[in-house]
Amino acid sequence: MLEIWLKIFSRSGIDEVLVNLHSHSDLVRAAILTHNGGVRMDLVDEPELLGSAGTIAANREWVGNDSLFWVIYGDVLTNADLEKMERSHYLTKPKATLGVYTVQDPQRCGIIYFDEELTIHEFVEKPTHPKSNWAFSGIMIADRSVLDMIPPKTPSDLGFDLLPRLAGEMKAYPIREYLLDIGTIENYNTAQNTWPGL
Questions:
Q1: What is the pTM of this model?
Q2: Structurally, how many domains does the chain consist of?
Q3: How many CA atoms lie within 13 A of 183 on its CB side?
Q4: Strand partners, 173
Q5: Residue 56: which H helix or E strand, with range?
Q6: Which pLDDT score, from 0 to 100, does residue 30 have?
Q7: Do the beta carbons of residue 65 and residue 77 sit within 8 Å?
Q8: In 10 A of CB 189, how many CB atoms?
């Protein structure tokens, strides 16, 4: 998975990434040692989980003075074109652009309701009564001002604590390429037979 993402980053012009380590950190370090591509990887150990938003807040200095930053969930298998998504973000200039895709089990996901202009009006994590089947893909590009909007609590989660606050200030970017959350054994097995490659 890491190797796939590094290839995507390389072809998208992303030359530096921060890799958050917790589970199986020894395997990730070993994989990184064998990588000889053009993407620089900065590793951060997180012995106590801070949550997806908490991790971003804890590493805000890594973003530096960059006007934008990406957030990528490591269990997303995709061959999405990040350059197209970035161009879309630059054109509309929202606080954040969320990659979205349709799912059959919306109660298990962060669900997004957006209009014909792709403005996200509502984000609900794991809703009991979903309004749509458009889900957050785990791929986001955001303005650095979003860093100041992360709630100062630990752990802090993107889906529960941050993205609902940004309703009306985010755009949806429907991902048409292959995308599968392989966080379940069923989806992992599906990926073995459906992954088209890069």
A1: 0.93
A2: 1
A3: 9
A4: 99
A5: helix 52-58
A6: 84
A7: no
A8: 11
Q: Per this entry, what is the length of the chain?
A: 198
Cα gap 162→151, rounded to integer Å: 7
Tell me the backbone φ, ψ of residue 63, rounded to 5 degrees.
-65, -30
The pLDDT averaged over each successive group of 10 residues in the chain (198 residues) is 89 92 84 78 90 94 94 95 97 97 93 97 96 96 96 92 97 97 92 93
CA of residue 92 relative to chain centroid, distance: 19
What pLDDT shows up at residue 180?
95
In angstroms, the CA 110 to CA 154 distance is 20
Q: SS3 for 26?
A: helix
Contact 160, 53 (CB under 8 A): no
- Full residue range of the structural domain in which residue 31 is found: 2-194
Are the CB atoms for 144 and 59 separated by under 8 Å?
no
Residue 10's CATH number: 3.90.550.10
